[in-house]
Amino acid sequence: MNAPVNIAVDNTPHDILARQRAAFLRDEAPTLAARKADLLKLKNAVKARLPEFEKSLNADFQGRSAMETTILEGVALVQGINYLRRNLRRWMRPQKRNVEMHFWPGRARVVHQPLGVVGIMSPWNFPIGLSLMPLATAIAAGNRAMIKPSEHTPATSALLKQMLGEIFPEEQVAVVTGGPEIGAAFSSLAFDHLVFTGSTPVGKVVMRAASENLVPVTLELGGKSPVVIESGSSLERAATSIAFGKLSNGGQICVAPDYALVHESEIESFLSAYDTAVRALYPQGPSDSDYTAVINERHYGRLRALLDDARKGGARIVEVGENPAAALARPHTLAPTVVLGATDDMGIMNEEIFGPVLPIVGYRDIDEAIARINAGPRPLALYYFGSNGEDRRKVLERTTSGNVTINDTLLHYAQDDLPFGGVGASGMGAYHGIEGFKTLSHAKGIFEQSRWNMTGVLRPPFGWLTNFVSGFLLR
Q: Is 140 a domain residue?
């Protein structure tokens, strides 16, 4: 990096953006070696700071599983960075494209060049991974980046700012902290691309603000991701995987199973299997150190209100697992809970739950399950448990979702070579895999004309040769 550019004395988001853009225009695009070196710096910094992140997240949540921080954030991020470094040379290579015969011997190619400055707005549920994986992708594509982490995880945001400030100059990577007013100002900046991860309502506000400057956006939102359990399949296997996906991080995962579609004849059997699975995962119940709390009192109150509304509407509320009453002894902690008999007019069947609450909905045949899924907005994720038969084919072909995992939950997110993103109300764009590199790059098409070529016959003055060639091309 060259010396910093002195174009502003203030440190507002607008001024930081101005400095980053000036530096981007001043310097050449980073080389392959520079990008890989920056990614390695980021990876090593995360590994070194992981114990500190475990502590900061435990403080922010007032009870966040250290091992979940290590696995769901640290491991996923490190593996994602490794994947970027392994594939970057191939992605950066110019791609030869076809040239039609009448333009011969001209040549065409596509080169991917950095966009410039990428804005990243990250959420509180995975403040490390959902800040730094978009950042790693932006770095791989040769960009500079500004990050606005969530105000709901202040200790972790401060640690992120400190860590990144130690390994990158601010004109390359900057962290902007603050509340909703800073977030609103951040989303209205004239970035070259904006990546937002969060709720659908906030995503609409962010997209509206970005549109004022025609900033392209990648929106990673959420929604009600369904689980379909095929009639006659192993309820024990399904229950174990669903319990893991539903209760990891206290259910606060954008791709967490939101509700389970179970054949009406198997609902009670599945409830029993789910209870057994929860007991195996958390032998001490909600007091288990591996069980994560709800982020704060506001979100805890929202979940309680959803359960109260369902109970008043006649739904059956069942707390499962060991000693669910132990949740009351921890700050804003909700015991694993199942809701039976929920109806479509209840809030719990309309809002993304984002907590350790699982509605179980009965279906009579697979067509009814598909119709229920398709009656709502397209989900970020869909899960299917069952054999490779006609029912699975129907679900895969007749539903549209961001991604699918079959016979497990969550794990499509960890497949680095798959694009990750939503569709419709669950988001737009993707930033994993080569799709992420392309999203944060400009694909520039280049046509190189040869000194000797045939296009001259299509220019005035027109004659018999022009008629012949144009007639040939119109065949």
A: yes
